[in-house]
Amino acid sequence: MNQMVVQSLQGVGLPSLAVLIASTVWFAVFRKHPRLLAIGIGLIFSGGIIWAYLLAFGGFAFPPRESGQWIPYLAGAVALVGCLQGNRPVRQVSNLVLSLGTALIFFWSQISGNPRALVWVIAVTTVLFVSAILLQQLIEDRCSGAELSLGLALSAGAGGIVIFLGGSAVLGQVSGAIGAILGVVAILAFFFNAAVGRVLPLVYLFIFGSLLLSGCLFAQLPWLTAVLLWIAPWGLVIGQRLDHPKISSRVKALMIRMLSVVALVAIAVGSAFLLTPPSSEL
Amino acid sequence: MKKHYLPLLLSVLAFAGTTVAHADSFKIDPFHSTIIFKVGHFGVGNVYGRFDTFSGTFALDQNDPSKDAVNVEIKTDSVDTNAPKRDTDIKGPDFLNAAQFSTATFKSTSVKKTDDKTYEVTGDFTLRGVTKPLTLNVQAIGSGPGPKGEFRSGWEATTTLKRSDFEVKALLPAVSDEVSLRIAVEGVKQ
Question: Which of A81, A234, A238, B49 has its CA 20 to 30 A from that of B154?
Answer without folding.
Answer: B49
